[in-house]
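Hey, sorry to bother you again with one of my protein questions. There's a protein on my desk that I can't quite get my head around. No rush at all, and the record is pasted right below.
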Amino acid sequence: MARRGSLRRRLVLLLTLAMVAGGVYTAVAFVQRSEVLITERCTAVGGGSAELATDQAANAGLISAVAVRRGLPARAASIALATAMQESKIRNIGHGDQAGPDSRGLFQQRPSQGWGTAEQVMDPYHASNAFYDALVKIPDYQALDITVAAQRVQRSAYPDAYAEHEGMARAFASSLTGHTAAGLDCTLRDPDAAGDTAAVQERLTADFGSIPASTEGRSLVLEAEGTRAWAVAQWAVANAKALSVTEVQVDGRSWTRQDRNGWQPSGAPAGQVRVTVAEAPAQ
């Protein structure tokens, strides 16, 4: 009888261990499947609500950052984003269309029309600055409808098409220039590579210009205040996928990649933006 009792206990133990192992496997499989099912996207609010793919949001961040760097109003960024959406879907494409066979880049600028060389119009920084150079020459462009201002720069064969993108342009421009705090959120899967604070600083400097910064472990700490701080912080969220950013803290709020609940209250101090990048994922 003692041997039967011992055997029974062993069987119960083995069954229990099997159930636990099965439960762990099921939980891991569920988490992994949930990650795969996540649709990566960025949303913005500010005069409306809109959604972009992550690569589009990163390019929108660059276009808006150039406006901030030049000291231009959010309205300029709105006009630029509406234009880029109509011309290229805010993607740096290397081909044109029947109306402009030599058109290239974010704004489909044509070298034959004086926008620069083919190589220059494919450079997002050159293209954005060239667009703004033309925009600021338009008297009272801020008072014009977005589609009217865009058309005066682009001289498109479809002058009314820009109006379709005004809502998206206002929402993303307002957040990415810092005028709508906590207005931009990106839903992302876990990073598949380690982040690099030096890469974040290099990209940010290219977009905004020099910003005082220091490194603390896996965090880049930037000195910025007010709307500029929020512009930098939401730029970091827009670039979180490409740069493996896991957390952004600014002005009493934080965005955490794994939380997926948008900006939450935190103890983040005013006057700085803290951008934290991922460690190398476990193998």
In short: The radius of gyration is 24 Å. DSSP finds ten helices and nine strands in the chain.
